[in-house]
Amino acid sequence: MAYLLAKQLxxxxxxxxxxxxxxxxxxxLLFGSLCxxxxxxxxxxxxxxxxxxxxGPPTGFSIGAAVLxxxxxxxxxxxxxxxVPFLGxxxxxxxxxxxxxxxxxxxxxxEQLSLSINLEPFRFxxxxxxxxxxxxxxxxxxxxxxxxxxxYNTRFGSFxxxxxxxxxxxxNGQRAxxxxxxxxxxxxxxxQLAPEIRLNYTSxxxxxxxxxxxxxxxxxxGLPSYSGGHAFSPAIGFGGYYMFTHKLSVVGNLRLIxxxxxxxxxxxxxxxxxxxxxxxISYRL
Length: 285
Known about the structure:
Layout: H1 5-15, H2 48-53, E1 60-71, E2 80-90, E3 94-97, E4 100-107, E5 111-120, E6 143-154, E7 157-166, E8 174-181, E9 191-202, H3 204-211, H4 215-221, E10 231-243, E11 248-258, H5 261-264, E12 273-284
Antiparallel strand pairs: 1-2, 1-12, 2-3, 3-4, 4-5, 5-6, 6-7, 7-8, 8-9, 9-10, 10-11, 11-12
């Protein structure tokens, strides 16, 4: 998400003339997770043609703060909001984006391939639900995943794909997505906004961990037991950034997901839609 903003901001900050920027306030964008790396957000990515124009791939550290709010449609819960400090690093081979550590495998003008390890800030805490039955269920905690990330850039937009598998043994599930985003401004400008369409895949193990109800939980709560299966969920959204100066910038993303029946059939879930919202401010050192 999963869409990578830190890379974009470094590329644009190198390309923009600092003297042309002012500090007037702006209304900011929304979403996802600068601190989580994709996850949660893809806007138009800087390609190697941009990077070569400013003397090579961007490198260096950045710091800031980010707020991630997600609404997985759990019964009795409105939203789960997490505020975290952000530390990022962009190098020619390696990057660190808050909760995502990765290595670039291929970086050309039109395509990028990388490997990453990510902390996934998705959870369920029963005591936070206002529903009595939901309070009797087991807690679901954060996970961590290893993934492959691919992006192909064209003059007509950016195509990306991510495949991740859980590595802590918490549920051993997989997630994947394909995304198309269309930048509304030229590369290297002071601001960018990019609408996107996306298709998410979630494996049955992932579904069963976060939305399943075991026989023991059913006996305690009175909810019917549920296991679920594989899920394909479409999503739409938009993301972008604004640069106050060549070092100070804000990024954000908003994504709306139409949940698959494998999720909405769970007695833990109400409604058919989920939302992810992210806003972050970053300062390049």
